Amino acid sequence: GPSNSEAAGKVSLLKKVPALKDGDFTLAECTAILLYLSRKYNTPDHWYPSDIQKRARVDEYLSWHHANIRANAPKTMWIKVLIPLFTGQPLPSEKLQEVMEGLSTSLKQFEERFLQDKAFIIGSEISLADLVAIVELMQPVGVGCDIFEDRPRLREWRRRVEDAVGKELFFQAHEMILNIKELSNIQIDPQLKEQLAPVLMKMLK
Asked: Which part of the chain is the GST C-terminal domain (predicted)?
């Protein structure tokens, strides 16, 4: 149901998605959920390595990610599709340019500081760090901002992530993001538009 409903509040105090309910245990925040699931189900070691230094590298990336890649990449989707859908009018092109400049800076740091000459973020095997990164970076692609096109090192990393996950599963997982433009054709309840438009605009400030 709606994330702001009373039932949703019982799963996540923040009333936001994603949220996990495992029996009587509830948990919010996507990174915390990923780490919890990897521990509970004893996933292969490469996802969240038992080696303390490799694990610290995953943690390092996850900490950096929120204030950098996540601070910019999803905004492309809000600017090009979601905010126009709810407000009924496009945002100035300068707003997208500003976000793309911030994202470009983050991607340069991502390549130079984290990826370097490695196959994946922490070395020769895929980890949760790569999963968290790729989900965010596919969002600009879904709205026509192909951030991989002129970045061969980043493009090759994406290809390796696709291969490691499996191409079919990869595109299945990103199907909604890659088809996000189709949302522009749906009809939104006017009352919902009125409620959400100011909130969405505030997110970009």
From this structure: 51-192
